[in-house]
Write a structure and sequence with these properties.
Length: 482
């Protein structure tokens, strides 16, 4: 199958932090793939910007190595990679002073789309925005891409929004949540809004509950001290899980345009019932035979930061009142797996008698691994002896359905090209980010005030006991993390 490629004009893309981990591991390999696919027209330029005393040759060598390391098995051919590297250049710029900004201005063209990717620590987002304004680098065709974390809480997110708004129109600001660029996450919208099948059942009359799981088997590893200042609520729930919840719960937008979609997502966040700190489960993984504990990895023996969160969330609107959404995410869990499971209610009456075994219909959308969908349905078990029922899976893996050779692009491939095209649909709007912080802040604040220890959980388990209880109390069960 040939992907439909929407052509773009030559552009200038400046990557602040072009020598950093994210740029080398994700952004530049993603751009190389787009280049090899013919989506980056001749004449486009990618400019790395950082403080390191490099010249263009040194930067190209660095990125050549990064491509070798990170492009993986389906890497574009050597010739494409070389031509891509030839489109790279480097300018030494210090975001925190005036050094290098005039050189950067000299390296840019006036009449093309100009994108600045802020792939630097969050403390530099504001200063870079201010310097772009001060050095007259902002043209009508300028866009900025702001990495996560977007603020640490509502107050800092609001302050950052105000700083950005002083120099850029909202239509120029692309707040990236790479989760939204994942093909399977976009598929949530396709499944819901391109099929008539699900929408009539998509409400509290027919849906018993929804489970959203984003589980990782890795611990915090080398990110320990950074992670410990954040925790699972800030690192995962406020952005990724909240976005998944929005895509599942939102009303159909009237069209697939950025503000139509984002308006509907915002309405969901605004309709979320508050959750108290005491109701939210948080956990920390302990040590295993071959793995260190959370406390050891973050090098803070008395840390109260959570590596796991589980929440029961209600949505107060006509569609969802009475259907709980259970959210959980954590590190060092049994496996790396993300899925959304929609469990439907039982039929109002069984014609097969009281004793007939019954399993609710469940629609599972697997985000990773083995992206796909499963619908559990009841059928008759073959054979004589009456009507015995059995639940079976209608199972579809996207790889099988689309063909093994179908390349599923990395989220960054999609998102960066959307920036160049000027399509903000998969980026968070300022009010959305603030609303998400406004909902999570009181929980985090309550935890801070209570100052009690998160529950412990075994490494490679399915999380702390309290999380199981969160479901048991409602007569429900988490799906197994496989
Ligand atoms: P990193 O490896 O520490 O890289 C930081 C980059 O910023 C380096 O290129 C550094 O180069 C540059 N830099 C630092 N101070 C600067 C200054 N004053 N002026 C200009 N450049 C400066 O960080 P990272 O992991 O790439 O993360 C970058 C951003 O992406 C962060 O906001 C992070 O939260 C976010 N993010 C990262 C990941 C990931 O997987 N790494 C995932 C999601 C989000 P010099 O020191 O040479 O200046």
């Amino acid at each position: 199958m040939v992907a439909r490629v929407i052509p773009v004009d030559p552009f200038d893309l400046v990557i602040f932090g072009g020598t950093g981990d994210l740029a080398r591991r994700k952004i530049l390999p993603a751009l190389c793939r787009r280049f090899a696919d013919g989506q980056m027209p001749e004449g486009s330029r990618i400019i790395g910007a950082a403080r390191a005393a490099l010249d263009t040759d040194g930067f190209r060598q660095m990125i050549r190595k990064a491509l070798d390391e990170f492009l993986g098995e389906d890497a574009p051919d050597a010739d494409s990679q070389s031509r891509f590297v030839d489109a790279l250049s480097y300018v030494k710029v210090d975001a925190a002073s005036d050094d290098g900004w005039a050189d950067l201005r000299g390296a840019l063209r006036e009449d093309v789309v100009r994108a600045f990717y802020f792939s630097v620590g969050p403390s530099l987002f504001g200063p870079i925005a201010a310097q772009l304004g001060a050095f007259n680098l902002v043209t009508p065709e300028t866009r900025i891409v702001v990495e996560k974390p977007f603020g640490h809480d509502l107050e800092t997110a609001r302050a950052l929004n105000q700083t950005l708004a002083a120099h850029f129109d909202e239509t120029q600001i692309y707040r990236i949540d790479h989760y939204l660029g994942k093909e399977t996450v976009q598929n949530l919208m396709a499944v819901r809004f391109a099929n008539i099948l699900f929408e009539p059942l998509w409400n509290s009359r027919f849906v018993d509950h929804v489970q959203i799981t984003v589980a990782e088997s890795v611990g915090v590893g080398g990110r320990g001290p950074y992670y410990d200042k954040s925790g699972a609520m800030r690192d995962m729930v406020q952005n990724h899980l909240m976005q998944l919840l929005c895509l599942i719960a939102m009303e159909p937008p009237h069209c697939f345009e950025p503000d139509a979609v984002r308006d509907e997502k915002l309405k969901v966040i605004n309709a979320l019932d508050p959750v108290s700190a005491g109701e939210a489960v948080r956990g920390q993984y302990t040590a295993g035979p071959n793995s260190a504990s959370y406390l050891t990895e973050v090098e803070t023996p008395d840390s109260l930061t959570e590596s796991y969160v589980a929440l029961k969330v209600g949505i107060s609107n006509w569609r969802w009142k009475g259907t709980p959404f259970y959210l959980r995410t954590g590190k060092r869990l049994r496996s790396r797996s993300s899925e959304i499971a929609i469990t439907f209610r039982d039929p109002p009456h069984s014609i097969f008698g009281e004793g007939a075994p019954w399993r609710a219909n469940v629609l599972v959308i697997r985000l990773q691994p083995d992206e796909g969908m499963t619908l559990r349905v009841m059928i008759k078990e073959p054979g004589p002896g009456g009507m015995r029922l059995k639940d079976v899976a209608l199972d579809m893996s996207f790889a099988d359905a689309l063909g093994e050779d179908m390349h599923i692009p990395d989220a960054y491939e999609r998102l960066i090209m959307d920036v160049i095209r000027g399509n903000q649909t998969l980026f968070m709007r300022g009010d959305e980010v603030e609303a998400a912080w406004a909902w999570t802040d009181p929980i985090i604040d309550g935890w801070r005030k209570a100052a009690d220890k998160p529950s412990e959980y075994d490494p490679f388990s399915s999380g702390p006991e309290d999380a199981l209880m969160l479901m048991h109390r409602d007569g429900r069960k988490w799906r197994e993390i496989r």
